[in-house]
Amino acid sequence: MVTAGPPRPTGALSHPPGSPAPHRGRRPARGGTASRARRAVPYLLIAPTVLALVAVLGYPLVDLVVLSFQDMTRRELFAGTSPPWAGVSQYRTVFTDAFFWAVVGRTALFTVVASGVTMAGAMLIALLMRRVSPWVRLTMSGVLVAVWAMPVMVAASVFRWLVDADFGVVNWLLGQLPGVESARHNWFEDPWQGFAVIVAVVVWGALPFSAITLQAALTQVPPELEEAARVDGAERSQIFRHITFPVIKPAFVMVTTLTAIWNFGVFNQIWLMRSGQPEKDYYLLGVYSFIESFAVNRYSTGAAIAVITVLLLLVGAVVYVRQLVRMGEAE
Fold it and tell me: What is the pTM of this model?
């Protein structure tokens, strides 16, 4: 008589004891592939931009670095021959030049002042835009966009007219003050006053982007937190320091870093304000490199200064990226 055996167990005991558990499909593999695909999406999206930048900037940057290790003169330039190899002599010349370090210090000071004034003004404008009525905010946004769209050449021409020694509006307004004699005052005779005008031109062009970005960040501040702080008796400065600013800090850091990088490489404003002939007291690194290359015809020395400027800007870019990564990890 044949009797039916016990029913086969299911689940985890469905395989013989001591034998390896059978594979239950390839779902983990599919999950791993999907995860890798998701991680690859940002790189695929940014790949066209990276390739375009490499195509447009790659060869000039490599050629600039090679030129900085050569000794290019007008003879090689006009003849089309390869300049002799000079090694690090150009960098040795630059680093042992006291004037170069004076230009570096001037560039750093200019960057700090221009960036600080820009961010302070942008924050005040953003806070003001937050408090006004919607139609006033819209009008202010339109004015900022119009200023942002103004070409640098037009802005420089306007500011040159404002501080003109003979017909400048600034001199006329100062002359209306009792005891102030400002007739035919040359603002660029003193480099400190001249750089004040140049900083004003730079800040004028940088304020719209900074202010609009900060105003957008302020919209993310929860109003109920600020209202609760007011009910508890907190002052406006305390509310801004402990509630408002921590929320907008990522945007503030991003805009500040970008502004500093842009200001470090300022060239157009100085060149236009000085009519293409800036005095040595107005040299920043960008102007100094251009003058050495195309005015003094020391092409390799100018290339070495340009490479140093690029390296210093890369340091700022690395700081910027690290800040973004840290803020992303904090979130």
Answer: 0.80
